[in-house]
Amino acid sequence: MADVSVVVVTWNALPWVERALESVRGNETIVVDHGSTDGTLELVRERFPEVRLIQQENKGLGGGSNAGMRVAEGDWFLLLNSDAWATDGALDRLVALGEARPDAAVLGPRLRYPDGRLQRSVRGFPTLWRLATEYLFLRKLAPRSRLFNAFYGNGFDHERPLEAEFLMGAVLLVRREAADTVGLFDEDFFMFSEETDWCYRFRQAGWKVLFTPDAEFVHVGGATTRKSWSPMFREQVRGHLRFLAKHHGRAEAERARRLLLVSLRLRGLAFPGDRGRTYADAASWLAGSSVEELLAR
Question: What's the pTM?
Answer without folding.
Answer: 0.94
